[in-house]
Amino acid sequence: FQDYGKIYFGASTDNGILQQGRTAEIIARNFGQVTPEYSMKWDAVEPVRGSFDFGNSDYLVGWAQENGGKVIRGHTLLWWRALPDWVSEIKDPATLTEVIETHIGTVVGRYRG
C-alpha cells in the first residue's frame, strides 16, 4: 500500500502478533501506520492505580520506529471493556475525573510526538 501512496494505511497489531510467522515482515513492508490492538488499553497499562506498565506498548512503539518510522495511531484510551477493576470501584465523580485525567496525561505524554 505504501507503494501506492497510502502512507497512513495501517494495521492493528501488538508485540505478540508481531512475533507470529511473517506478520512483522508483512506489516513492515506494506503499512505506514500501526494501531495498538490492546497494549495501550487502560487495564494493560495501569492495572494498579498509579502503577504504569508500558512494556508491551513500548515494544510496539520501538518496533514501529525501527521499521520505517511508522506512525502510531492512538486508539481507545478509555473503553468500558478494558477498565481495571479498581476504576469501576471509584464512586466519587471528582476522584474519577482526576484518575481519568492522570491516566490520559501519562499515556499521551509518554508517546507525544
TrEMBL record:
<dbReference type="GO" id="GO:0045493">
    <property type="term" value="P:xylan catabolic process"/>
</dbReference>
<keyword id="KW-0378">Hydrolase</keyword>
<dbReference type="InterPro" id="IPR044846">
    <property type="entry name" value="GH10"/>
</dbReference>
<protein>
    <submittedName>
        <fullName>Endo-beta xylanase</fullName>
    </submittedName>
</protein>
<dbReference type="InterPro" id="IPR017853">
    <property type="entry name" value="GH"/>
</dbReference>
<keyword id="KW-0858">Xylan degradation</keyword>
<feature type="domain" description="GH10">
    <location>
        <begin position="1"/>
        <end position="113"/>
    </location>
</feature>
<keyword id="KW-0326">Glycosidase</keyword>
<keyword id="KW-0624">Polysaccharide degradation</keyword>
<dbReference type="InterPro" id="IPR001000">
    <property type="entry name" value="GH10_dom"/>
</dbReference>
<comment type="similarity">
    <text>Belongs to the glycosyl hydrolase 10 (cellulase F) family.</text>
</comment>
<keyword id="KW-0119">Carbohydrate metabolism</keyword>
<dbReference type="GO" id="GO:0031176">
    <property type="term" value="F:endo-1,4-beta-xylanase activity"/>
</dbReference>
<dbReference type="Pfam" id="PF00331">
    <property type="entry name" value="Glyco_hydro_10"/>
</dbReference>
